[in-house]
Every structure is written in structure tokens, then in C-alpha cells.
């Protein structure tokens, strides 16, 4: 699958809820996971591949999973800042402050309700992907735009868990 590149206007659209979880959605999830791994990345939202639906996939090394129609149910007041990157902006990183702990509810690939309590790195990834579903790109959240910078491909590969 092709990953859209910023500033493609499609990335600014708010995605619609998935109404039915069927074989087409499960196949899309499988293809998104393959695309995310090939990129390589740790998260990929459906709008990034031109699908305006509320669905994303994540793999932080514990095995891939999908979240359909995610909603943030709670977030901590304690903030954390991580340097983020994005498959839509390859080679670009910048510091983003987000709540350090969140609880997300949604559906898995079988339509079963799931609740994810996440902190630190996973909390950042989930918020980043949910932003994509709302038409938000991480550079929108970088307070000091002078801190957005380019990194080499080699640096990205060696430090992908940090980006």
C-alpha cells in the first residue's frame, strides 16, 4: 500500500466510524500491518493510506494489533515529551508533549470491545494515531517549529524506537 505524504489534503480529513467489521476490514488491517512493517514504522492510521475510516494498527515489538473506532476515555494531567516522527513525513522529527497515561476504548479486528491502558511510549503512539483519524499531523503539535528537524535514514533505522 502507498503511504500518503504530507501535505496531501486527504491527511486533514476527519475519518468516519467503521460501521461494519467484515472480511474487507480484516484484509485492510492485514495489509496495513504489512505496510507499517515495510516502511518501517510502529503505527499506521487508515487515513495515511487513503482510507477515511477510524482504524489504526500498532506494533511496538509485542506483536501487531488494530484498534477500530478508538476513543480516548481518560488521560493524565502529567505530560511527557517525546520526539515523534511520522510515515507521512519521512525523515522529519520534532518534540511533542502529550499526556503520559491514557485509556483508549475501541474494537479489535473481530469486533470485540477492547480497553487499552497505556503509558509512556505506547500512550504517545496511540495519541499520534488517533490524531491522524482527526486530521491532525504531529507537526501541528510541535510548539516551537524551529525544533522540527530532518534526520538521516540511517539515524531513523538505528533509533526507530525513539522516533
Describe the structure.
- Helices cover 22% and strands 33% of the residues.
- The chain contains three helices and eight strands.
- It has helices spanning 23-38, 120-133, 153-158, and strands at residues 43-45, 55-58, 65-75, 79-86, 89-99, 101-107, 113-119, 149-150.
- The strands form two sheets. The chain has a five-stranded antiparallel beta sheet with strand order 1-2-3-6-7. Strands 4-5-8 form a three-stranded antiparallel beta sheet, with helices on one face.
- A hairpin with a 6-residue loop joins strand 2 and strand 3.
- The relative contact order is 0.20.
- The chain has one domain: Peptide Deformylase (Alpha-Beta Complex), CATH 3.90.45.10.
- With 163 residues, the protein is α+β, with helices and mostly antiparallel strands.
- Keywords: Hydrolase, Iron, Metal-binding, Protein biosynthesis.
- It catalyses: N-terminal N-formyl-L-methionyl-[peptide] + H2O = N-terminal L-methionyl-[peptide] + formate.
- Removes the formyl group from the N-terminal Met of newly synthesized proteins. Requires at least a dipeptide for an efficient rate of reaction. N-terminal L-methionine is a prerequisite for activity but the enzyme has broad specificity at other positions.
- Its EC number is 3.5.1.88.
- The active site is at residue 129.
Amino acid at each position: 500500500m502507498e503511504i500518503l505524504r504530507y501535505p496531501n489534503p486527504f491527511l486533514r480529513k476527519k475519518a468516519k466510524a467503521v460501521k461494519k467489521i467484515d472480511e474487507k476490514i480484516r484484509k485492510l488491517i492485514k495489509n496495513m500491518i504489512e505496510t507499517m512493517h515495510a516502511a518501517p514504522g510502529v503505527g499506521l492510521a487508515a487515513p495515511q493510506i487513503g482510507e477515511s475510516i477510524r482504524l489504526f494498527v500498532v506494533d511496538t515489538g509485542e506483536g501487531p494489533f488494530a484498534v477500530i473506532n478508538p476513543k480516548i476515555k481518560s488521560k493524565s494531567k502529567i505530560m511527557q515529551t517525546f520526539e515523534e516522527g511520522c510515515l507521512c513525513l519521512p525523515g522529519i522529527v520534532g518534540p511533542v508533549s502529550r499526556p503520559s497515561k491514557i485509556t483508549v476504548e475501541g474494537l479489535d479486528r473481530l469486533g470485540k470491545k477492547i480497553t487499552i491502558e497505556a503509558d509512556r511510549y505506547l500512550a504517545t503512539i496511540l495519541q499520534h494515531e488517533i490524531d491522524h483519524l482527526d486530521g491532525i499531523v504531529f507537526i501541528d503539535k510541535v510548539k516551537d517549529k524551529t525544533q522540527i528537524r530532518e534526520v538521516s535514514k540511517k539515524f531513523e533505522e538505528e533509533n526507530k524506537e525513539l522516533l
